[in-house]
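Researcher: Re-running this chain for the archive, since the previous output was lost when a drive failed. Same request as before.
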Amino acid sequence: MIEFNNTIVVIPSRMASVRLPGKPLADVHGIPMIVHVWKRAVEANVGKVLVAAAENEIADVIRSHGGDALATDPALRSGSDRVAAALKLRDPQGNFTAVINLQGDLPTIDPLAIQRCLAGLTNETVDIATIAARIEADGDVRNPNVVKAIAPLGEGREVAYARDFVRSTGPEHDAPFWRHINVYAYRREALDRFASLPVSTREALRKLEQLRALDNDMHMAVVRVDSVPLSVGVPADLEAARAILRKKS
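Model: Regenerated structure tokens:
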């Protein structure tokens, strides 16, 4: 059983973005972007929320808005590694048994999507859960920058095991296609194992971290959601996020 007092949302964040340096502290209507992400996590109301920062300046901003944050090693190779490292510092006893990894560049994410990701752990055979939304545009199907979760989801199926994650589809893949959203819910022991594993061959080839789990026989559930949050990666995305959040303010 998933209990909110045993669940924590960890938001990994770092300043060293190649395409948008300093993006966690980018101004979005007077509030740093990372604070918007933290607010979405708080609104999801699934448990504690912690920002795992690569730099003290990010942690200081979160604390100034009343949140919880700590600084982690800037050299950590991935967001998952940063989440695992933060938990070793904050919760070495393992009191939090479910962990949500919410990327720090999703300021427009629907809090319900975070809830649905966590619900993917309801099945006790699932190690990791993630979320995906149906792709409606043919251009997105063809776009290798849109990662597709290969899972037998459909109108009558809200949750399914992931079979693969691909950038390009082929004749072996059946429509409809599902756009993967980079949010994960882990059982604590699954996160610890995942963070200890070496990069897998397919992970390195496709540059998709989630393949490390499948390549090591971990069971990953994909939960269907209705909307795709904007992932802020370049200045144009930041302007789009400002426009979206302006409408909601």
